[in-house]
Amino acid sequence: LVVIHINIVRPFAGLSDVSISEDVPVEGDISVPVAASVTEDGFSTLDEPVKETVLRDLRAVGSKFVHVLYPRRSSALLRDWDLWGPLLLCVTLALLLQGGEADSEDRGGPQFAEVFVIIWFGSIIITLNSKLLGGTISFFQSLCVLGYCILPLTVAMAVCRLVLLGGSSTVSFAVRLVVVSASFGWSTFASTAFLADSQPPNRKALVVYPVFLFYFVIGWMILTFAPSQ
Amino acid sequence: MASTNDPFQFKEFDEAGDLLDANRDAVTISIDDEDLKPQKQRKAAGFPPDEDEDDHLGDDKAELLSGEKKNVPFWTFEYYQQFFDIETHNVRERIIGSVLPWPGKNFINVYLRRKPDLYGPFWICTTLVFAIAISGNISNFLVNLGKPNYKYTPEFRKVSIAATAIFSYAWFIPLGLWGLLLWRNNKVMSLVTYSFMEIVCVYGYSLSVYIPAVVLWIVPFEWLRWCSIVVALCLSGSVLALTFLPALREDHPKVMIAILLGIELLNALLAIGCKTYFFSKPENVPPVVIPVPRAGNSTKMSS
């Protein structure tokens, strides 16, 4: 006779006493999900046209963009993580931050590689921080979320460049400030909506603050972009 | 939270007892949520019946209280996880304790209590690095506003310089101090010894008072900057002095004064160095006149 007591009082009070006798074999069915290269029809995706493959990935990335823009507590971003979206956003942002006057004379603007390093290195540090604090989210899921939530800031960068086409006056600065602040708040809110659930409740602020700092620094880089004359 | 009077817990215990009575061959395994159950409960219903249970639990308790929880090798993830075993209110209390030093309240004894963390020092240093870079940028912009020759640049190079300065202050000086204290400990038996992580923790939290000071330096008034430097130096310096005084008290007075002076001087060096390098002085300087060579006239360059 094997008696197993599970005394976890808080949520599972009703299941506190579970006894399983030895002569009842524990049954189950562990089935491995079908390998990814075979669709439900049984046809291998190796034979499909390249356009299909690319479009499928693009659709996945696009659906995640929609999830970021309208952040609800859905697990789609976490479950099917990918790093294409973050890469796309990072490259776009780094490219948009080029072409500034500061950059052309090497007088202090961020280089392409610097933007890359800041975004990826910053995401890794924040992920390590949240894992060390006891988060249940996996490493790549966290990178995925942080990368995708740069979308509002990238959109703000594009808007800023458009505004700067009309000249850099105080009005344009005010407009840019508002746009960047709004998108910074949006990014932080979106990523917190995904990440906060994975942390124990008394450490949420400890995890959210580095995310806040990360997007603040990126927002600062966007706001201080000075176009070449 | 469960208590000894919780009938539910007792019911568990009874059932286990009944089951054991019913079948003597039964092997009892109990998985408990250890936070909630008091020790007595654990002893009664938890572990397999064992005569020297008391010793085991005594060891556990002593081990947990001593802080040297596990001897995990330093290249594993779990080793570093023990330095992040901290909650929001802990961090808040430690920051407040580092900003408001109280004579007699040793930071390490009162706030750390053998549980140093790496979260505070790391993120305070990072915040300070970005605060210095951004505030320096804004203050330069404000100082040079209106000058015709000035072109605004976001000086990102300065972030790496600031990072190097602050992180070396926060890591190498504690390393040196820890080595120094170890060496003195060999000569003079002192009642108080600090581990390396605790010293890093004190230094990290003592930098937290500089974050509001640095933001205040945006305003281009020299008197305001110097006032805030003096206040910040006093606060962080006294936190450090109050922490290391008990460790050095039994030592030769000259050595004690030398070490304390060294700590304060390095602190001041960091503060004044950052202010001088990152924040330009708002002085009334006539703009640089580029000499235009005119035939027959001599021109002077003024700066």
From TrEMBL, chain A:
The gene is yipf6. This is Protein YIPF. The chain crosses the membrane at residues 81-100, 112-133, 145-167, 173-195, 207-226. Keywords: Membrane, Transmembrane, Transmembrane helix. GO terms for cellular component: Golgi membrane; trans-Golgi network. PANTHER family: GOLGI MEMBRANE PROTEIN YIP1, PROTEIN YIPF6. InterPro entries: Yip1/4-like, Yip1_dom. Belongs to the YIP1 family. It is a multi-pass membrane protein. Its main location: Golgi. It is found in: Golgi apparatus membrane; Membrane. The keyword Glycoprotein does not apply.
Automatic annotation (TrEMBL), chain B:
It is found in: Golgi apparatus membrane; Golgi apparatus, cis-Golgi network membrane. The chain crosses the membrane at residues 118-139, 159-183, 195-217, 223-245, 257-278. One of its GO terms (cellular component) is Golgi membrane. GO terms for biological process: vesicle-mediated transport. It is a multi-pass membrane protein. One of its GO terms (molecular function) is small GTPase binding. Pfam families: Yip1. It comes from the Eukaryota. Residues 98-263 form the Yip1 domain. Residues 31-59 are annotated as: Disordered. Its main location: Golgi. Keywords: Membrane, Transmembrane, Transmembrane helix. Belongs to the YIP1 family. This is Protein YIPF. It comes from Gouania willdenowi.
